[in-house]
Amino acid sequence: AKPTRVSYLYFPTNGSAPHDSSCQYEYVIAGSANKDIGDADLLHHVRDSGQIPTECIFAGFCTMGKKKGSKKKGNGKASDGAAGPEKELVQRFEKGYLKRCQEHNNDDPIAGIHQDIKAALKADATYTQMMIVPPAELTGSFESSKLTPLFTAVVETGYPYLKQIFVWNLILKNSDILTLAQYFKSAKPSVEQVEFMHTGISRAGCRVLGESLAFNRAVKKFSMLHNDIGDGGAAVLGSALVFNQVLEVLRLEYCDIGADGAEGLARMLASNASITELYLPGNRIGATGGVHLVKALASNRTLKRLDLQNNHIDCYHRAIDTVASGALTDMEEGGGDGELDCVTVIEAMGVHAARNGIFTYLDLFGNLLETRGGQAVVDLYAARKEAGAPTINIRCNPMQMHSDVYSEISKGTKWVAADGKAKKGAKKGAKKGGKKKKK
Q1: Residue 195 forms beta bridges with which residues?
Q2: Is the Cβ–Cβ distance between 258 and 292 less than 8 Å?
Q3: Separation CA 342–CA 370 (nearest Å)
Q4: What is the pTM of this model?
Q5: Is the distance from CB of 46 to CB of 29 less than 8 angstroms?
Q6: Run of H or E including 252
Q7: Total Cβ atoms within 10 A of residue 424
Q8: What are the residue ranges of helices labelled H in 38-144?
Q9: What are phi and psi of 294, to 5 degrees?
Q10: What's the whole-number average pLDDT of the chain?
Q11: Closest CA relative to residue 25, chosen from 49, 4, 9
Q12: Strand, coil or helix: what is 244?
């Protein structure tokens, strides 16, 4: 059977050929091969690294869908199905793209994109993932954007199979962002996942993209990684997404967002009815921003996961010991993080998520909770258990935390692995251990 997926990814500049296989990938970074890596793991690996290795070049990426009408025969092989309609749409998209390039100051098509389209046609497959990365050049004649003919062709030909757009390590100009925004505003956008990493998007760019996504009915995952959008960018993006009804995952990682930006996102969460996961690792929201976000859980009924890793939500001694004694009031009147710390955030969680049965996971790893913060987590677990409320799993850092306290936290979240994924068979193993002791 033909592979259902094919990829052409990183390979060294010494001319080695990339590897093709069914749903598996082999890529080479700095001379060491890593085999049997799934596509999602590979994308996360490159994204989390924050950069594309300079010693490797990029040859594109495309996902190949199965042929429509493919059926299993008795000998286990797939028969060739009719790929006519799908192939015709890809061909029409390619012709429309080349035509628009000629009309657009006679610019050449973006090499990597055109190569991926031709690869899809050769494999009788649909072109679904658009990777825009170095060494691609986005500036055409007269400083115009090369993305303009590309997305004009997508809209005009009605191409329905484009599902993902990744833009990595390329500084986007205003004309590039406007082109993307116009596509997101189009009548029938098909893209479900968008990711910008190291693209130099500013507050103004966030405003334009946010407005284009406000009423978009296709994008379910939106990521802004390693872009210094700051508090202003986060606030304008949050204001626009209040009206969005389909976005499920929002990632704003390492974007220089502080407490004010977190407050803007909290206002969005209080009204938004679609986002289930919000990731804010590597920012500087502090305890003040953390409390803003946690307070939104009182009215939000969709958010399940909040990731606040490495956000300076640390354990500092403060004059106010409990939420009930006025910590939240002081914050709203301008009290800074000198009065608020990780304990405030955890206590606020107990207050504002008391009636929320949807929210299940808070990631505070990389913040220095110490023993006081750890004890606050233990107390929260105990209070929710006594009240019969669903457990909120809190991942935290054991650094400078008493071992007994961390052990109590682990008991409450022992089914949660280090990466936040559920461990299979943990409860089953515990039961077996109990039986052995009885014997």
Answers
A1: 166, 223
A2: no
A3: 9
A4: 0.75
A5: no
A6: strand 249-253
A7: 10
A8: 39-49, 84-103, 111-122
A9: -65, -35
A10: 76
A11: 9
A12: coil
Per-residue pLDDT reduced to its tens digit, 393-404: 999 989 989 999
Selection from 92, 98, 103, 134 nearest residue 114 by Cα: 98
Q: How far apart are CA 116 and CA 64, in angstroms?
A: 10
Whether the per-residue pLDDT at 112 is higher than 80: the answer is yes
CA dist., res. 245 & res. 110, Å (int) = 33
Distance CA 305, CA 419 (A): 13
Q: Report phi then psi at 199, rounded to 5.
A: -115, 0
Rounded distance between C-alpha atoms, residue 116 and residue 109, angstroms:
12
Copy the structure tokens of residue 292.
């803003």
Contact 413, 421 (CB under 8 A): no
Amino acid at 39: D
269 is written with which tokens?
Answer: 């969460």
Report the SS3 class of residue 280.
coil
Cα Rg for the chain, rounded, in angstroms? 25
Token pair belonging to 312: 């300076």
Q: Does residue 292 or residue 136 have the better pLDDT?
A: 292
Count Cβ atoms below 10 Å from residue 56 Cβ, excluding itself. Answer: 17
Task: Name the most confidently modeled range: 21-30, 142-151, 258-267, 316-325.
Answer: 258-267
Contact present, 68 and 85 (Cβ < 8 Å): yes
Tokens of 309: 């890793």
Amino acid identity of residue 256, one-letter, is D
Pairing of strands 277-279, 249-253: parallel
H helix intervals, 251-363: 259-271, 286-295, 328-332, 342-352
Whole-Å CA distances, 26 to 13, 14, 21, 38, 147 = 16, 16, 9, 9, 30
* 187 Cβ contact partners less than 8 Å away, ≥ 6 residues apart: none
Cβ atoms of 27 and 18 within 8 Å: the answer is yes
Q: Residue-wise over 116-133: b if at least 16 C-beta within 10 A, else e?
A: bbebbbebbbbbbbbbbb
What's the CA gap between 58 and 7, in Å, rounded? Answer: 11
Q: Which residue has the tokens 């710390």?
A: 341
Number of H helices, E strands in the chain: 14, 13
Q: Which residues on neighbouring strands pair with residue 111, listed in sequence order? A: none
Residues in the chain: 439
Please give the pLDDT value at position 391.
85
